[in-house]
Amino acid sequence: MNATMNAYTIHAESRATVLALREVPVPEAAAGQVLVRLHAAALNRGEFIAAHGLHAKGAAKPAGAEGAGEIVAIGAGVEKLKPGDRVMGRCAGAFAAYAVMDAREAVAMPSTLSWEAAAAVPLAFMTVHDMLIAQGRLAPGAWLLVTAISSGVGVAALQTAKAIGANVIGTSGSQSKLDKLQMCGLDVGVRTRSGDFCDAVMKTTDGRGVSLVVNNVGGSVFAECVRCLGFEGRLATVGYVDGVLKAEIDIEALHAKRLTLFGVSNKLRNAAQRAETARGFVADLLPMFADGRLRPLIDRVFPFDQLPAAKAYMESNAHVGKIVVRLP
Question: 263 CB contacts (<8 Å, ≥6 apart)?
């Protein structure tokens, strides 16, 4: 295919990341891939933080990591998908008219979801499946703590936990964000921007601590997260927006309470591992989207040509849930 399209690239400059709109060739579907005409794509904070896997300063890469659209071509070996299918999934270069997806990660869109809603699902909810179900083993009636709960992954964790039947404590520096998330089922909100929430967590759980913590913040609250865990508790580290990449570990607590500490990353997994996560998502969570038990919380939708404004809005920390761009 010799056609071209407008697409955003991203590169690091000093301690910031910069978007640029360029004309590039329309990609082709290789073996095991599908080419998708995208209708919407979602923003993810990690992509816009210079330390999160970007190339060296000055080197640009395709921007965008997830979207939803219609398949227009399939590569060799793809059997279960066909042109015209409506899909959502992870895809490099999602801020463009066309992108390729690994066929194993292209998930059939439920008819209950709009393009914008579908684009907001893949990365957040597949990450949440890994944290809460595959590794976290969150059970009905258990307590979950989510730091920085108003983030895209934080809100998805809240929604999924409530669908499972768990109880949720969330932290945020904004009382208005916590109030808004009560509509999504938040049981207890703790207003704070620092590692001082353990007392509130212990009071809520009658001193037992939580079964699972989702740490979206990073090293500055890591020790406090460990203090919040109950016996055989699990701590998932998924983000480090504070830029603090090291933290002290209480070895005595780790030993005495039989704790499990694990990391969660979609980007740093290989293709087979991501495909396994997609299968788990399809089995456990996709039915909840189909019947309405789950629906992503979208804060705001921007036109494609306003992606830089959408990025600035995300970096302002004013949003609750996901930010999406609509393709022309």
Answer: 236, 237, 238
Provide long-range contacts, Cβ within 8 A and 24+ apart, for 190-194.
194/220, 194/221
For residue 48, give the 3-state DSSP assignment: helix
Total-model pTM: 0.93
Q: Is the pLDDT of residue 191 over 90?
A: yes
Under 8 Å between Cβ of 90 and 266: yes
Which residue bears the tokens 């869109």?
Answer: 109
User: Alpha-carbon distance 149 to 181, whole Å?
Assistant: 9
Judge contact between 239 and 214, C-beta under 8 A.
Answer: no
pLDDT of residue 316: 92
Cβ(181)–Cβ(189) below 8 Å: yes
Number of Cβ atoms within 10 Å of the Cβ of 38: 27
Q: In the CATH hierarchy, which top-level class contains the domain 125-263?
A: alpha beta
- How far is residue 163's CA from residue 293's CA, in Å, rounded to a whole number? 7
CA distance 254 to 232: 9
pLDDT tens, residue by residue, 132-144? 999 999 999 999 9
Which residue's entry shows tokens 């590169």? 11
Alpha-carbon span 294 to 256, nearest angstrom: 37
Residues 196-216, mean pLDDT to the nearest whole number: 97
Which segments of the chain belong to CATH 3.90.180.10?
Answer: 4-121+296-326, 125-263
Cα 325 from Cα 328, distance rounded (Å): 10
- Domain 4-121+296-326 carries which CATH code? 3.90.180.10
What are the CB-based long-range contacts (under 8 Å, 24+) for 271-279? Answer: 271/102, 271/104, 274/90, 274/102, 274/104, 274/105, 275/102, 275/104, 275/105, 277/126, 277/129, 277/130, 277/134, 278/89, 278/104, 278/105, 278/107, 278/126, 279/104
